[in-house]
Amino acid sequence: MMLDVTRKPRPVPTGVSQPYWDGLREHKLLMQRCADCQQLQFYPRSGCRHCGGTHLSWEQMSGSGHLYSYTVIHRPPFKAFAADVPYVYAVIELDEGPRVIATIETDDHDSLAVDAPAEAIFDDGDDGITLLRFRLQ
Questions:
Q1: Sign of dihedral through CA atoms 101, 103, 105, 107?
Q2: Confidence band for 6, pLDDT divided at 50, 70 and 90
Q3: Does the residue 106 lie in any domain?
């Protein structure tokens, strides 16, 4: 199957990740917590990445964190992203600890600074998929 470079790829929720995507659709950031070791984890998976436990539950995060690292993308990876460049691709460390990768909504790339506070925003797609993004506070 060839990649259609004229369309942005969209996530395909799985049985394991469906609660995460359902949470985003409701504008809630959910992450898994292991009942065995109490650690949070991201991305969703069927076992704990810390202890291997399988007693996982979903917990709502605050959506607040800070900019851990970032890069400004100036060259689109393919045609569907051409209108978006330049855009910021970032690692956000949530106040609860896990790190997530997302884009940052900003046109002011000069204002970006590691450790800047950030908050989650939710990008509702017309296909029922909501993407996690961030803005600096």
A1: positive
A2: confident
A3: yes
Distance CA 4, CA 98 (A): 32
Q: Tell me whether residue 32 is exposed, middle or buried, using C-beta atoms within 10 angstroms of its C-beta: 0 to 12, 13 to 18, 19 or more.
A: buried
3-class DSSP state of 104? strand
Tell if the pTM clears 0.85, that is, is over it: yes
For residues 73 and 42, membership in a common domain is answered with no
Q: Looking at the predicted structure, is the pLDDT value of residue 91 above 80?
A: yes
- 71 and 52 in a common domain: no
- Write out the residue range of the structural domain in which residue 71 sits: 62-137
pLDDT of 82 > 70? The answer is yes
Same structural domain for residues 41 and 67? no
